[in-house]
Amino acid sequence: MIPMIDIRNAEKTFVMHLQDGIRLPVVRGVSFHVAPGECVVLGGPSGAGKSSILKMIFGNYRCDGGAICVQHMGALLDIASAEPRQILGVRRHTIGYVSQFLRAVPRVASLDVVAEPLLAAGVARAEARERAGVLLRRLNIPDRLWKLPPSTFSGGEQQRVNIARGFISDLPILLLDEPTASLDAANRAVVVELVAEKKRAGVAMVAIVHDDEVRHLIADRLVDVTSFAANA
Amino acid sequence: MLDVTKAPVDNDQPLLLAEGLSKSFGRLHACRDVSFALYPGEVLAIVGESGSGKSTLLQLLSAQMTPNAGSVSYRMRDGVMRDLAALGEAERRFLFRTDWGFVHQDAAMGLRMGVSAGANVGERLMAVGHNHYGKIRQTAASWLERVEISTDRIDDAPKTYSGGMRQRLQIARNLVTEPRLVFMDEPTGGLDVSVQARLLDMMRTLVSELGLAAIVVTHDLAVARLLSHRVMVMQGGRVIETGLTDQVLDDPREPYTQLLVSSILPA
């Protein structure tokens, strides 16, 4: 089967010019692939570079070497060498990202925050809002909060809005950075269900999960990031 | 009201193309060898400190200043790419009145302060041939609503408005002709923080709903992050770093960009 994500020898080093040009190698020789319908969980201690790898796949961190190929609109695209416009296209049509924290936009209602990726993909506003409501309800965000901007919510509620926003679209690749970190057991179970549904829909996922139980439930395969340690 | 969000179109033809733009004032090189392409629906932020050349670049791009070297071309509504320097006066005026918008930091430069808000918006429509008074007034009123100005204030002159309202009115005046490209020079400069947030949110929504391309000059990286897809960092008249906005801000490469990013005060 053709992988959705194929990473070969990707590497990342930060050069801190304000600290006398100190070089901070993060990862080197990152190589793994993810098939459609598969959830690969990145393992390794804090600081091993797990989040950096997710950010490199999303094009948020630049990749200093190697290739990060994804299936994008029927063709193979190397994120490491893609133009900014191509990466924007990838984010609209191919890769979704659930970050640890919601970067809340002031004044936008939670329902619209969740519906936004669908609108960007061309779905009509009424349908996008309806689907957003369904997800928010599943994640136990009561209707009366939908009109409020998420900046007024608790940490756990903000994260659920963020999860709804990440899971709403029908993108073939999903990157999950600690999606269950500040959730209670009931909501963790909802996220596990959502991941299972995405798998059945053929979505390729890369996840970082510290909760052993959740990891056990969603991981099809573990990739140990310590083997990519750049200063090993 | 439009009900579709037009994301940046996957359009392979640039809307505006800058090639080797340079401008000097005597021995001062305000802008050196700047080249880039802007695509329909794309928002580009030009960031840098005062004196970095970003405002000069905006003047060059919008044909308000002539470069010493290089050129700017623009795709006209008929699809033909034209060199701005070769446009006739009438064509240039057409661009300014209809296809382009220009949002100034100081709203007084973009508005007529002594005439009513309705006339400020309606004037741009009349300039493109609208002549039905009732319709013009109706369109003006609907634009005031879109920029969250109460229609009770339609007959008041902007000199009676607050700073934030003036800026919103300036935006309405610019967008009423459905331009394809809007230039913005420090659009939130000089406004209170709460007023800035409201304005930014409104601009973000309008830009995406209308599928506008925009070039935004700002020294405020938070404005760049909220509004733009791509960013160009300028220092000493040169573009020193360019890329996706979140990439440049989260993973800055150049020493000067790292300095800018690390100088943001945490809220």
In words, what does this structure look like?
The complex is a heterodimer of chains A (232) and B (267). Chain A is built from 7 helices and 9 strands, in the order E-E-E-H-E-E-H-E-H-H-H-E-H-E-H-E. With 232 residues, chain A is an alpha/beta fold. Chain A has 2 domains: 1-94 and 194-232, P-loop containing nucleotide triphosphate hydrolases (Rossmann fold, 3-Layer(aba) Sandwich), CATH 3.40.50; 99-170, no CATH class. A 5-stranded parallel beta sheet of chain A has the order 6-7-8-3-9, sandwiched between helices. Chain A has a 4-stranded antiparallel beta sheet with strand order 2-1-4-5, with helices on one face. In chain A, helix 3 (110-120) packs parallel to helix 5 (155-167). The longest helix of chain A has 16 residues, at 185-200. Chain A is globular and about 50 Å long. Chain A starts with a strand and ends in an 8-residue tail after the last strand. The model of chain A has no long low-confidence stretch (mean pLDDT 93). Chain B has 267 residues and is α/β, with parallel strands linked by helices. Chain B has a 6-stranded mixed beta sheet, sandwiched between helices. A 4-stranded antiparallel beta sheet of chain B has the order 2-1-4-5, with helices on one face. In chain B, helix 7 links the parallel strand 7 (181-185) and strand 8. The two termini of chain B are 35 Å apart. At the A-B interface, strand 1, helix 2 and helix 3 of A face helix 7, helix 9 and helix 10 of B.
